[in-house]
Amino acid sequence: PDEVFFHLPDSVTNEYLDQADLPKKARINDYWIVGVHGGASLQHGYFNPPRIVSFYPNLPVYGFSITRYATMMNMFPNLGMEVGFQHNFEGYNFKEYESEGATWRQNIDGAYEAYMEVPEVFVLTHGHMDMGQYAKIILKLGMYGGYRTNITRIGPHVDPAYVNAFKDTDIRWTYGVQGGFGFGLMFDPIEIHLGVQVKWGWSSFYQPDVASPYYYRFAYPLDGAVTLGVYYQLTKRRGRSRAALRRMARETVEEEMNPEKDR
């Protein structure tokens, strides 16, 4: 038999679709993605006593994560939760400065620079806002935790025994706040995210009173990273842009007016 094509009547305009009720099962931005990311980090740090520091890049940063987007309380379709792992760095780099006609460079235990590899896990609240059908703005905030490994100290007065070794007074576990922002492109089922992350560490590189029980000397991480990620949508995404909502409404109206369509 000849196939019968179904067309919506002319009365079903865009204005009509904008006011159509969507089924509860068709939640907006309620889906899962999983993917990998990579990039480079920037070490900085903050210190007591104050130090003259500069940003220093390290790479590679790489990791993976899984994100669950959801419509919270049937009211907020812009939130999600991201859980993942990444290989990152922490450390510091003191730059030269001029004082009284001489050139100086500060150090910690003889090291002008020190860098540590840090495997990390993180849990982030993931906010996003659709900017049309194919783009979105991303904001993240949460916590991270990791373990400092493979230290490298650089400087003419570093004890040779500790160039690539931790001291008993060094602190290996690290944790703190992690956040960031980014831009996403969505070509369902593939998403590409370009992001900037910032880490504010709450675990000093060494015991704060190691120099003296009467003098509080500390060094906390304050680092950033730039990453590019590729993600796959495990479940279907229903966007929040006007075009996406109209497409969902059109599909719903078609099913209501032509129940034989999917049989």
Write structural notes for this entry.
The two termini are 15 Å apart. The longest helix is centred in the C-terminal third of the chain and has 16 residues, at 242-257. It contains two helices and 13 strands, in the order H-E-E-E-E-E-E-E-E-E-E-E-E-E-H. It has 263 residues and is mainly beta.
Rg over CA atoms? 26 Å
Shape descriptor reads elongated
Mean pLDDT value? 84
Strand order of the largest sheet: 1-3-4-7-8-10-11-13
Helix content: under 10%
Q: Uncertain regions: pLDDT < 50 for 5+ in a row?
A: 1-6
Write the element-wise H/E pattern from the N-terminal end onward. Answer: HEEEEEEEEEEEEEH
Q: Largest beta sheet, briefly?
A: 8 strands, antiparallel, barrel
Fraction in beta strands: over 45%
Please tally the helical runs, counting DSSP H or I stretches of 4 or more residues: 2
How many strands appear in the DSSP assignment?
13
What separation lies between the terminal Cα atoms? 15 Å
Which structural category fits the helices and strands?
mainly beta
